[in-house]
Amino acid sequence: MSSNGSAVGQLLQPGSLCVGWRPDLEGAVYHLAHCFLLLGFMGGSGVYGCFYLFGFLGTGYLCCVLWGWFGACGLDVVLWSVLLAVACVLQLAHLLYRLREDALPEEFELLYKTLCLPLQVPLPAYREVVRCCEGKVLTLATEETYAVEGETPINRLSLLLSGRVRVSQDGQFLHYIFPYQFMDSPEWESLHPSEEGVFQVTLTAETECSYISWPRKSLHLLLTKERYLSRLFSALLGYDISEKLYALNDKLFAKFGLRFDIRLPSLYHVLGPAASEAGPESEKDDEEVREPAASPPQARPTSVRQTPPSSPSPAATNPPAPPPWARTSRPDSGVLASRTPLQSYSQVMSRGQAPLAPTQTPEL
What we know:
Helix content is 53%, strand content 10%. By secondary structure, it is of the alpha+beta class.
């Protein structure tokens, strides 16, 4: 016990004070090492800040190893410097491994910068979305169909990355889908998670396309757990559906020369094949409607008695005014609904009134 106590006392006993300072300074390697250490401790936070920190610290400790070996000639200095330098190198290797593991593919990186970065979506939340689609990028060849009307089940949600997709119904073109737009957002919003359905439009690739797709059940499960992602997808899908509605509205404007209101019901009837088949019948109906208004009633001839000249009476000087023009009654909504959309449109335009959409809504 006494020997152990004496050893501890010697360790704790302060060393001898410096009697005199050395006239010469340490070598350049010693000062260079401390310059690197100073720069390393000025590093910031984050991944790149850690790279800066451990990079300069590792370089400084390597310089300390050289100084301890050639200048100080102390084994303890060399060992501690080697240990600290190895720790910095291992930390740099760990950072490189994490960066390579968390790196996104080029398509998903571009998608994040285009769609999610302007909305300030956190990168960890975006990684959850990418993990849900398993990081796969699917392709469509030219004229290959993504969905067939009345056949393809609604079991996924897809986002177009490149190319152009044509949407049609009953063989008639509706609108295009461009990059970074959802391909089946109306179908996604039309069904509850427990419901099943099929596409009511046909989606065909006009060029070579690439897209990502989320399985319906997996995405619903993710949105149920993550409320932030649920609100994010709700905003993105709502904006995408509104863009598709405006595309239909622009198509109506290009076809008739009159911009319809997208809030009017049954705009599909105006786009449907019935509008092109009702051309001759609508002209006949227009002529029948315009005939009563174009032929005003004629006054019947009346016999005039010959009377001897006398002072003109007030009734003779002011002849009776002709009867007012007969106004044709406006057809009610039932008549307009019974006609085809083009007939109603031509009748209303001939009278200078705003067009009315049909009241019968198709089953989509």
